[in-house]
Amino acid sequence: xxxxxxxxxxxxxxxxxxxxxxxxxxxxxxxxxxxxxxxxxxxxxxxxxxxxxxxxxxxxxxxxxxxxxxxxxxxxxxxxxxxxxxxxxxxxxxxxxxxxxxxxxxxxxxxxxxxxxxxxxxxxxxxxxxxxxxxxxxxxxxxxxxxxxxxxxxxxxxxxxxxxxxxxxxxxxxxxxxxxxxxxxxxxxxxxxxxxxxxxxxxxxxxxxxxxxxxxxxxxxxxxxxxxxxxxxxxxxxxxxxxxxxxxxxxxxxxxxxxxxxxxxxxxxxxxxxxxxxxxxxxxxxxxxxxxxxxxxxxxxxxxxxxxxxxxxxxxxxxxxxxxxxxxxxxxxxxxxxxxxxxxxxxxxxxxxxxxxxxxxxxxxxxxxxxxxxxxxxxxxxxxxxxxxxxxxxxxxxxxxxxxxxxxxxxxxxxxxxxxxxxxxxxxxxxxxxxxxxxxxxxxxxxxxxxxxxxxxxxxxxxxxxx
Length: 467
Ligand code: SUG
Hints:
Helix content: 25-40%
CATH class of the largest domain: Alpha Beta
CATH architecture of the largest domain: 5-stranded Propeller
Radius of gyration: 21 Å
Number of strands: 15
Bound molecules: N~2~-(3-carboxypropanoyl)-L-arginine
Number of helices: 18
Number of domains: 2
CATH superfamily of the largest domain: Succinylarginine dihydrolase
CATH topology of the largest domain: L-arginine/glycine Amidinotransferase, Chain A
Strand content: 15-25%
Largest sheet: 3 strands, mixed
């Protein structure tokens, strides 16, 4: 018998450069809010408030640090020369999109960080981690190397965890991580069913594909991850996302579908093949988990896809609480959207295990198309595996206090794209990240913390104390 397990949410922290650059074609919110003024401090505090809510509800929580931005290393690799400020100035003049891509705080959407298979599902009984290559968008593709490094520091490879490198970074193998992946199970520690959702089959030129917006995840990437994670093919499904939904702004499956344990909540237009796809999922779940899957399928009369995209209803988190009940963590705007609110009221009153909705204000993240579910990477762990996780990233009341103070100390409450060129700003951001690596006990993580680069007073003082 497998040991019991639980889900731990690793939430991404918005970084000091959180801004609205309009980098994600096909992501309606990102396109609509392009070049407006952001509030990085509010973004970080909103994300922290959500983590605290889940922690207070009894869900295990942890954090992932922001990435170093602006990413001068990438610009230097692409031929820009001079000191950091000169490189940023040149890049902003010669290739504005690239410059903005190197300033994005997009690593905060941790659902895209990786796909993780629990040990119960992998043939070798280990937790498998594959960081996403995020190949379809340049500002996201540059996340992969540091994400891989961070995940290796947090899930140390001694016995329990196995890390695969991100898939080769080409759109044929476009991989967006767990945003296109749902694990269903009876209890977390038992073998489950893994549903991978792709936007297109890259080996086919014919067939149904979106025509307006790009499909980011390919079937080829999903099948590669399933192979690497040693999943049982009889309990692994590959389903195509509906191309019309992608064309309406559903750039990831988690904008139209969410699942937890034996419950799947989605829209009738989530998958190509509609009812047929749902029947397949139900059948495989029944065979593997020996019980019926509870499906809550909302149709366009209940909520049109456009309203699902506007409200981000399906990007709610569906979580199991300690007493085994389930609840939804929904974006505040679902309370204001009449379609979404009616659906949520109906779900809570309906014959299913979901008995509460908690609304969270994530306005800053949502203006870039990232809701509650986008901000977290779900990792199912047994007690033993959990004890091997790098403990300083695990949420506690004291970590909460330190992070709130850290945000207030370092984050601006107003940032326009022009501010990204302010020479003071890169110094400020590095100072914040440098201090964060101390709070999270991560050691030297960022390129600027290399031996010849910038060092904060705190780190220098600590180093001197050891010398
Ligand atoms: O990849 N937005 C992200 C949002 C990711 C949401 N994640 C999930 N659905 N799991 C993206 O499109 C916008 C950045 C900008 O425009 O400045 C952005 O990258």
